[in-house]
Design a protein that fits this description.
Number of strands: 0
Mean pLDDT: 83
Radius of gyration: 20 Å
Structural class: mainly alpha
Strand content: under 5%
Order of helices and strands: HHHHHHHHHHHHHH
Low-confidence stretches: 175-182
Shape: globular
């Protein structure tokens, strides 16, 4: 299929079918998990037959990331300032978590996976897919292995966390029926304001070179607008499912990067890594819950080693402290990438062996 438009329709169409099927089955966050699974299946089959990946535009993903950021910003309230002292405790704990997770994952990828030292070190990073791949490649690691392993990490986390919540609570979470972000039914003017803030934030974030700019820019712009005016930002709740569909389908399309055999091996290693890292995150959440007035659920999602966009969307879909979760994931990724950058510069200058 050569026409890019029809390739995109195929990905989104298969994603929509998977989302509806997942909703019917009763999976948590069906429009994210269902679309990802079905788009991945179609992408793998297409790649096996043609040897080419189906086209999925990065601009479309960034557009809906901006919408997710705006949604997160719209949940901001002055109560968030009351949690500032608690952040000193939880972000401090995040430093310890990142160090422990890095050590555990390095051992897994080096000993169990048999990866070379450099590739194992950057594959072990608990965050920053793009940065981990680029820095690891610069240091002499295998870029394809790093890309696949970090992609698998993100997928496993966003699948396992909602399923764990469903197993624990016994309720289907993250569906449109169970999650309402609107404070009142959105009017045309509300939707227009919401979209304007999304556009402005999408421009401001990359212009200021903010980390995860397409997400953080709209989040900050919307939060500031809501905090400094008497107007509450109120976007249509239908955008939630649409954002899940686009992000999930885009993730699924990336499965065509590798062969089924390599994917199976990567998922085997990833399952061990993510399982132990989530267990570590749960331990931190259990301890911190006794120290700060933040729920175990919010702390677990905050420490889960997924991508900042995907985990923010999970928090938003589950209705669990999305701004708090985004702050923790942003800090984790900045910390991880900063340390990795220092190690890369030292390796380049010959300071490490």
């Amino acid at each position: 299929m050569n026409n890019k438009f029809f390739q995109l329709v195929l990905i989104l169409g298969s994603g929509l079918f998977g989302a509806v099927l997942a909703d019917w089955i009763g999976l948590p966050i069906p429009y994210l998990l269902g679309s990802m699974a079905m788009a991945a299946t179609v992408s793998l089959v297409s790649y096996a037959r043609s040897g080419q990946r189906l086209w999925f535009p990065i601009r479309l993903r960034h557009t809906f990331i901006a919408i997710i950021g705006t949604m997160i910003g719209s949940t901001f309230s002055s109560d968030a300032f009351d949690a500032a002292p608690d952040l000193l405790v939880t972000l401090g704990a995040m430093v310890l978590f990142v160090a422990a997770a890095q050590l555990i994952n390095y051992t897994i990828f080096r000993r169990l996976g048999g990866l070379d030292r450099v590739t194992a070190m950057y594959a072990a990073m608990p965050g920053g897919l793009i940065e981990a791949v680029s820095l690891g490649e610069k240091a002499g690691g295998d870029a394809e292995t790093l890309t696949l392993q970090h992609f698998v990490r993100i997928v496993l986390v966003i699948v396992s966390v909602p399923l764990l919540f469903q197993l624990v609570t016994g309720e289907t979470v993250g569906s449109a029926a169970g999650q309402t972000l609107e404070k009142a039914p959105a009017q045309l003017t509300d939707t227009a304001l919401f979209l304007i803030l999304a556009v402005v934030g999408a421009l401001v974030g990359p212009w200021l070179k903010l980390p995860a700019g397409p997400l953080i820019g709209p989040m900050i712009v919307t939060a500031v607008f809501q905090a400094t005016t008497a107007v509450e930002v109120n976007g249509p709740v239908s955008l939630m499912n649409l954002a899940q569909l686009v992000v999930g389908s885009g993730l699924g399309a990336n499965f065509a990067r590798s062969t089924p055999r390599r994917l199976l091996a990567a998922f085997g290693l990833g399952a061990v890594s993510v399982g132990l890292t989530l267990a570590l995150a749960s331990m931190f959440a259990i301890v911190l819950e006794k120290v700060v007035p933040i729920s175990f659920q919010a702390l677990l999602i905050s420490f889960a080693p997924g991508g900042v966009t995907e985990m923010s969307l999970v928090a938003l879909s589950l209705g669990i402290a999305p701004i708090l979760v985004t702050t923790h994931h942003l800090f984790r990724i900045i910390l991880t990438v900063t340390v990795a950058g220092i190690l890369t510069r030292r390796a380049s200058s010959g300071d490490t062996r």
